[in-house]
Amino acid sequence: MMKYQLSFVLLLTPLAVFAEQHCPAIDAIKQIGGVYTAQATSGEEWVGILQGPLPQESGIKRFSEAIFVVEGENNGNNVTGSGKFQKCTYDLQAEDIQLDMYYGGTTWIASVSGKPHWEYEKGGFFEIYTCSTVAPEDCKFDILVPGPASR
Fold it and tell me: Least enclosed by CB within 10 Å: which of 44, 75, 127, 148?
């Protein structure tokens, strides 16, 4: 019975914020071969899989950026609708190799409304926000629905 009540409550709050998240700190990322993981504050796991052969210097050197794709209304400074949080990207110690890490291994319906450090960019096909030049923990976003978005 409790399961049904919880489902009903979730239906009544479709755009409620379920969790504030941020890109994982470099020292929180664990590596086994070409697979990189980190625990999120929600208990979900960040996952990144290195493509191609594993370089000798496969440790993470620095945080590069986080990307959020806008969907819905936008005023150029603040997301008023929602979008999909895409990924956090890190530079590896090996030159010219980057690692993309995904929250829960996928994209999520999220918002960066009211979060500092996100910069608006309008591309040819997408409107995006990027977060860079700060620590990965400063790239915060809100998960709006409990479950991954389709890519």
Answer: 75
